Every structure is written in C-alpha cells, then in structure tokens.
Amino acid sequence: MRSIKQPGAPVTERIQWVEVRGRPFSFTLPAGLPLLEAARRGFAAEGFAGGVLNFSQGALGPFGYVMPALSKTGENAAFYSDIYRPAGVTRTRLGSMTLGMRDGAPFYHCHGLWTEADGKASGGHMLPDETVIAEPFEVQAFGIDGAMFTAEPDPETNFKLFGPVVSASTGARTTSRAFALRLRPNQDFALCLEAFCRAHGIAQAKIHGGVGSTIGARFTHGDVTEPFATELAITAGTIAPGAAGALEAALDVALIDYTGGIADGRLARGDNPVLMTMELVLEALE
After folding, report:
1. What is the pTM of this model?
2. Structural domains of the chain, ranges and CATH numbers in brackets
3. What's the Cα-to-Cα distance from 263 to each of 44, 115, 195, 227, rounded to whole Å?
C-alpha cells in the first residue's frame, strides 16, 4: 500500500477516538455572518458545543481558502498553498466541516469544492477568519456530547490537528450512540473503519462529517488521482455487512489535489491510505 514518510515517529494508537452521544439535525446559516460563527450558533441553539456538518449548495463571499501544496521546507510531508481570495460570490458544490476548539476558542476544519464568480472550479481548505456567508443556506449537522474535537500539536505530522478529546456533557438532547474519530496517517481509510466497528461491536454505522486527506485516491469507477497531497471531504459514508456478510465501508468522497485536479466518487477498499488525518463521527445504527 502507498505510504508517505512523516517527519515524526508514528504514534502506537492509530485511531484517536472517544465514544459519545449525539444527534443529527439541520439548520440554516444566515447571510452576513462569518461561517465559523454561524456554525457555532447553529450547534449552540441545539445544546451542542461542537460536532460535524455537511452541506451542498451554498454561497460565500468574502471568501479565503488554501489548497494542498508541496512542502517548501521539508518540515511537513505536504503543506498549504498561498491564500486565494476570489472576488464576488463563490458557489459551493459540497463541503464537510469539523467544528471544535483551538487555543481555547471555537475553530473549524472545513474542506469543499466550489465554483468561483469567474467560473473557475476549485476546492480546498476554507479559512475560518476569511469566510463569510453571502446568502443563507442549509447544512446537515451531527452534534456530539461527551467529546470535543480539539486542535493539538501532532508530533508525527508536525501539524496542529483536530482530534477528539473527552469533555463534560453539555446536557444536550441526544438520540444515538456515536464515536468521534481521528484516523492517523498511512492506514487504509475503509479497512481501518471496518476494523474499528468490529472491535467495538458496531453492526452498522453511518458517517457524519468527514474532513481529511488521502495519499492520492483510487476509485471504484476506475479513476485514479496520482498527486499524493489532497484535501478531501466525505459526501456520504456507511459501514454495513456486504454480500459475504463481513463489514464493508462505502465511502463517497470529493477532493482536490495539489495540482488543482478535482475528483469524486466511491473510494476503492484497501487502496486509499490516509495522508495526514481524517476526522469524522460514526453513528452506530442499532
């Protein structure tokens, strides 16, 4: 399987996880607010301090983002581009967000694909302090209670990365057993989730959120993304028994690579290792 050497030694525990309670809900992001603040308010209104969300058609402006890029210093296996600030209103095709905390304040990690006002198709990593909602749009969210995605220094990748950390209950109304996860580098995305579900007695699960990167990508429809550095959003995901009865992860994703190549589809099981990180929530369907 493909792998990328990271600057630091691998941590023994390859999945950072916390079992939580959670609940799906939807809300509308109002125009004029920064995306981060609008998301925070939407979760707070339902009693949650954090969680994950997904969206499709949205409108952003002002808007700032970065794309994946090669590392100029060698201090990281890959890095970010310079900041892009497209003029006018950018229309999103899809996006996925993890809402948590960094340095004691609300923060998010959000990837997506979009079309800029001049017609340019692009994607990448939306900057929390430079992204404002231009027109109201709806998002599908999953709030978590009992953990917070918290940005902490990660010696393996030499980045400050979100991972789930146990937190006090906020008393929010919940409906589901769930798990907040962060997958570490150089392990296959699908097989890793299947093994996790087997180990925790999860017979069937639905993925909410889903922000991270893979080492290029191999899709079930035959397409291949060769450039190794990607920014990826999960558009749909389940783990359920396959035809032979064993658990199989079906992971539909969309991504942009460091050359600007855009791809989407279902990932091939066993051939899509994580590059830096993969954050998501697994809702156990029982």
Report:
1. 0.97
2. 16-286 (3.30.1330.80)
3. 34, 14, 27, 12
